[in-house]
Design brief:
single chain; OB fold (Dihydrolipoamide Acetyltransferase, E2P); seven-stranded parallel sheet; five-stranded antiparallel sheet; about 40% helix; binds 5'-O-[(L-methionyl)-sulphamoyl]adenosine
Length: about 650
C-alpha cells in the first residue's frame, strides 16, 4: 500500500443505540453513512478507526427490562447482540463495537467524572424539574408543552426531585459560542448550527448529571464515596467516544482522538453539539472536527411507529432488494440533513434506473463490445490519443468529489459519479464503435471501449465504499483490484488501468417490476424474493421449441398504430415522458414511457408509434400508464418501432 495519506488518523463514530428496541432503518441509515465514510477513508489511505455500539444504561432500559421480566443486563445482552448481528450481516466494517456495560468503559467514565470534579466543574445540589424517560432528558417548566409534555417526543414528563450532581454547563456558554463562530463547519449541515447557537445564546442551565431514584447506571468514582448515585445516561453515553479509544484505561488508541466526525440524527444533535464539547473542554481534550446531523426517515410519508405497524425493518429490505442497492438508495435518495421518505417505489426506481440502466448496463456494454471486437481484451494505449477530451471531462469532475464526502454531501458525490457514467454512455452513442468496426477503424473502436472501461474502473474505485459487494464483482469483471494503490494510480494520478481481459458476469441489478415486500413478515418477503428467482431459473431451462406460441396466443396482444398527440416530461424522473396517444378509441391513452434519455418531448408530438393497446393499466410515479410503446434498444441506443408510412390512427398491427 502506498503511503499516500497513511499518516493521517481518521476516527468516525455512529451514535450508540439504545437497547430498548430492535434496529430500524433510521439506525441502519446512520450506520451505513458511517461505514461508507470509514471504507472511503481506508481506501484513500487514512489510518481509520470506526466505532459503533450500544447504549445500555438508564431508566428507559431498566423499565423495558422489568416489563419483560428480565434483569437490565440480560435484556441489554439480548438486544445489543441483535444490533451486533445485524451490523455483521450488513458487513459493517466497524473496528470496535462498544457496550456501555463494558468494564473499561465504566472505568473510563469514572475517570472522566473525577477529572471534571477535580477541576471544579461538578458540584452537588438538588434537582427539581421535569424528566422525560423516553428521551432521557431534563426540561425546564418553560420548555414543556401544556405544562407536562416533552417538547421532543410529546410524551408526559415526570417531576423529579432528588439530590444530584451538576455539571457547570453555564460556565461554558461563551466558549461554546466562540467554538461555533470560529468553526462554521463544526456542525454539519451548516444550516443546522443556527438552532444550536440560538439555544446556547438563550442561556444554559447547569446540567444534572446523576440520578438516585434507580441504580442501572455507572456508579460515581469510589473516591466520592456516594453510592446512591448513578451517572446520568447521556454523560455515560457520550463518553463512549473516548473510552472506546481507551481513555482512562489502556490509552493506546487515544491518538485517534479527536474524531473526524460524529454522525448523529437531528434529534440528538443538541447533546452532541452542546454537552459533548463542554465535557471535552472540561477534560481539556481537543474537540471533534464535525458533528454531522442527518434527518429522519418516514415511511410512505408517515412517521414510523410500532403502533402504526409501519416501521421499516432494514434486514427485510436488504434481503429483498439486496444490501448494496439498499445502501445506495439510502445514501443517494436524500440530501444529508433533510428528512427522507422510504417507499419501495422510490427504491425500485433507483435500482432500475441508476443501478440497472446506468451502471449495470454500462458494464454489459463493455463486455458486449469487447467480446465482439477484441475477444474481451482491453488495451488502454490509444485512449489518450483519441479521447483526451473525455478524460479531461472525467478528471475535472473527479478531482472535486472528494471534498463532498467529509462535508457530508454524499448524495452530491453520487450525483457527480453518475455524471461521469453519463460521459461513458454518451461516448458510446457519439462514436458508434460498431460503425468504426464496420469501416475499418478498429484501432479507434478499441480505444473507445478502453476509454469506457477506464471510466468504469475510476467510478468503481470511488463507489466501492458505497456498494462494496457489487463493486467487487465489477472489479472482478474488469480484471482490476480496488485498493489504495489503484486509487492512487487512477484517481489521484489520473492514470489508466493496465491491459486487462473482461470477464462476463450476470446482470448486477436485474430489473424489478413490482414491490418485493408485501408485509413486514419475513416469510412472505422470502417467498416473494424466491419466486421471481425460481421463475427466472425455469425460463433458462425452456428450450427454443418449448417457447413457441400459437397464433391465437400472439393475438391476445392488441397492437395498434397510434399518434402521439401530447408529450411532457415527468418531473423528478430521469427516464419518463408522459404521453397522450390517440388510438382512435375516442379517448386518448396516457402512456408513461421510459424514453426521456433518447427522445425529447417536442420531437415526439405528431409522430406515430406501435402501441400495446390492451395492457393492464399500472401506476408509475403515482400516475396511471395505460399502454406501452414498442421500441428496440441496443448499443446504438433506443429507437421506437414505427410504421414505415403513416397509417390511419388505430390500425391493427398483425
Ligand atoms: N442512545 C442514544 C445515542 C447516544 S450517542 C452517545 C440514542 N439512541 S437511539 O437508538 O434512540 O437513536 C440512535 C440514532 O437513531 C439517532 O441518531 C437517531 O437520530 C436515529 N434515528 C432514530 N429514528 C430515526 C428515524 N426514523 N430516521 C432516521 N434516524 C433516526 O439516541
Amino acid at each position: 500500500m502506498s503511503d499516500h495519506n497513511s499518516c493521517k488518523k481518521v476516527y468516525i463514530t455512529t451514535p450508540i443505540y439504545y437497547v430498548n428496541d430492535i434496529a430500524h432503518i433510521g439506525h441502519a441509515y446512520t450506520t451505513i453513512i458511517a461505514d461508507m465514510l470509514a471504507r472511503y477513508s481506508r481506501l484513500v489511505g487514512y489510518d481509520t478507526f470506526f466505532l459503533t455500539g450500544t447504549d445500555e444504561h438508564g431508566q428507559k432500559i431498566s423499565t423495558s427490562a422489568a416489563q419483560r421480566g428480565k434483569t437490565p443486563k440480560e435484556y441489554a445482552d439480548e438486544i445489543s447482540g441483535k444490533f451486533k448481528t445485524l451490523w455483521d450481516d450488513f458487513d459493517i466494517s466497524y473496528d470496535k463495537f462498544i457496550r456501555t456495560t463494558d468494564e473499561e468503559h465504566k472505568t473510563g467514565v469514572q475517570k472522566a467524572f473525577q477529572k471534571m470534579f477535580d477541576k471544579g466543574d461538578i458540584y452537588k445540589g438538588n434537582y427539581e424539574g421535569n424528566y422525560c424517560v423516553g428521551c432521557e432528558t431534563f426540561f425546564t417548566d418553560a420548555q414543556l408543552i401544556d405544562e407536562e409534555g416533552c417538547p421532543d417526543c410529546g410524551r408526559p414528563t415526570t417531576v423529579v426531585k432528588e439530590e444530584s450532581y451538576f455539571f457547570r454547563l453555564s460556565n461554558y456558554e461563551d466558549k461554546l459560542l466562540e467554538l461555533y463562530k470560529n468553526n462554521p463547519e463544526f456542525i454539519l449541515p451548516r444550516a443546522k448550527a443556527k438552532e444550536i447557537v440560538n439555544f446556547v445564546a438563550g442561556g444554559l442551565n447547569d446540567l444534572s448529571i446523576s440520578r438516585t431514584s434507580f441504580d442501572w447506571g455507572v456508579k460515581l468514582p469510589s473516591s466520592m464515596d456516594d453510592d446512591k448515585h448513578v451517572m446520568y445516561v447521556w454523560l455515560d453515553a457520550l463518553m463512549n467516544y473516548i473510552t472506546a479509544l481507551g481513555y482512562g484505561t489502556d490509552e493506546a488508541n487515544m491518538d485517534f482522538w479527536p474524531a473526524k466526525v460524529h454522525l448523529v440524527g437531528k434529534d440528538i444533535l443538541r447533546f452532541h453539539a452542546i454537552f459533548w464539547p463542554a465535557f471535552l473542554m472540561s477534560l481539556e481534550l481537543p474537540l471533534p472536527d464535525h458533528i454531522a446531523a442527518h434527518g429522519w426517515w418516514t415511511r410512505d410519508g408517515e412517521k414510523m411507529s410500532k403502533s402504526k405497524g409501519n416501521v421499516v425493518n432494514p434486514k427485510e429490505v436488504a434481503d429483498a432488494y439486496g444490501l448494496d442497492a439498499f445502501r445506495y438508495f439510502m445514501l443517494r435518495e436524500v440530501p444529508f440533513g433533510q428528512d427522507g421518505d422510504f417507499s419501495q417505489r422510490a427504491l425500485i426506481d433507483r435500482i432500475n434506473s441508476d443501478l440497472g440502466n446506468d451502471l449495470g448496463n454500462l458494464l454489459n456494454r463493455i463486455s458486449g463490445m469487447s467480446g465482439k471486437y477484441s475477444d474481451f481484451k482491453i488495451v488502454s494505449k490509444d485512449v489518450i490519443k483519441y479521447h483526451q477530451k473525455e478524460l479531461d471531462e472525467v478528471h475535472a469532475i473527479l478531482q472535486n468529489v472528494e471534498q463532498l464526502i467529509f462535508n457530508m454531501q454524499i448524495h452530491k458525490y453520487l450525483e457527480e459519479l453518475w455524471k461521469v457514467l453519463t460521459i461513458a454512455n454518451k461516448a458510446i452513442g457519439d462514436y458508434e464503435p460498431w460503425n468504426m468496426m464496420k469501416d475499418g477503424r478498429e484501432e479507434q473502436a478499441m480505444a473507445l471501449v478502453a476509454l469506457v472501461t477506464n471510466i468504469m474502473a475510476k467510478v468503481s474505485v470511488l463507489l466501492e465504499s458505497v456498494m462494496p459487494h457489487k463493486i467487487s464483482q465489477i472489479a472482478k469483471s474488469l480484471g482490476i483490484t480496488i485498493d489504495n494503490e489503484t486509487y492512487i494510480n487512477i484517481i489521484v494520478n489520473k492514470g489508466l488501468i493496465g491491459d486487462t481481459v473482461i470477464t462476463k458476469i450476470d446482470a448486477l441489478f436485474p430489473r424489478i417490476e413490482e414491490p418485493l415486500l408485501v408485509t413486514a413478515d419475513v416469510q412472505k418477503v422470502e417467498e416473494k424474493v424466491q419466486k421471481p428467482r425460481q421463475e427466472a431459473e425455469k425460463q433458462v431451462e425452456i428450450t427454443e421449441e418449448d417457447n413457441l406460441i400459437t397464433i391465437d396466443k400472439f393475438f391476445e396482444t392488441s397492437l395498434k398504430i397510434g399518434t402521439i398527440v401530447e408529450a411532457v416530461e415527468v418531473p423528478k424522473s430521469k427516464k419518463l415522458l408522459k404521453l397522450q396517444v390517440d388510438l382512435g378509441e375516442g379517448k386518448n391513452k396516457q402512456i408513461l414511457a421510459g424514453i426521456k434519455e433518447f427522445y425529447s418531448a417536442d420531437e415526439l408530438v405528431g409522430t406515430q408509434a406501435c402501441v400495446v393497446a390492451n395492457l393492464k393499466p399500472a401506476k408509475l410515479m403515482g400516475m396511471m400508464s395505460e399502454g406501452m410503446l414498442l421500441a428496440a434498444k441496443d448499443e446504438n441506443g433506443l429507437h421506437l418501432i414505427r410504421p414505415e408510412k403513416p397509417k390511419i390512427i388505430g390500425t391493427k398491427i398483425s
